[in-house]
Amino acid sequence: MSGIRYREGQGPAAGGRASDASQPPPPLPLDPSRLCRWLWATRPKTLFLAVTPVLAGIGLAAAETGRLAFATAITTLLAAIAIQVGTNLHNDAADFERGTDTPDRVGPPRATAQGWFSAQEVRIAAHLAFALAVLLGCLLVARGGWPILTIGLASLASGYAYTSGPRPIAYGPFGELYVLTFFGIASVVGSHYLQTLVFDPAALLLGVALGLPAAAVLLLNNYRDLETDRIAGRRTLCHYLGRPGARLLYAALLLLPLPILLVPDLPGATWLTIGSLPLALWLIARLFGGAHGAGINPLLARTALYQTALGALLLFGFAAGDLG
To answer: What is the pTM of this model?
Structure first.
């Protein structure tokens, strides 16, 4: 691109390293195309949070059975991505209409608040993403039956309820529980079941382990936006815990997956996940070291990366167990 533009309050003057509290969100191209704006609106960095637990559930099933239902695996991944995109777009429009995304927000730019698209356009795009998820879900229900229908309907309903209705999930203290449930347990258990058609306690353990760092991403997001959220009427878990309590919970959400993944119920060399510990300790140290405001943004990306690292090391561990 020929140039870079910054939102108000951003730019080189904000200075500092990536971990500095004054670090601005990533700059946007001067005149991004409409397609690039739609891509940004989907929040592509968050898609790893949807894909990682699905891949882990599929990997667990393959390690246990030695088989892979490839078409089902691809359909499951696409459905998870569609639900995530729909939730992100719906959240974008709803937060703008509720007045949460204000000029004081220090997170990455949002499509509706930036004026790239109207709230109605973004909401229609969200409906289209959810409709795609329904179509893909019908294929999955044909294989998995009523358990998959139940998980799918609950996932769609929660995607709408996250920022809609009289008591949106995102505006109360249960957002982290929502993430743990749907971006951990439901994703892993559902994708594992679609491969094996059997419920396995090991899949539940794996879902909890991967859902915890996903919940840490939301906790950190709300930690960054605590003051502006309070002004907008959001009473998140961070509001009730306060910053010191939120920092302790963040540390727990990052560290607890490691002992869970070492239980003997999981196949393969799951001890490889210990390799992610240095990243977890680094993230905890940065938050306890005083990162705040826009300085949280790099930590958000790396917290999502931590969940991805856990998932990747798990898959390596499953593969190593098969080779052994």
So the answer is: 0.84
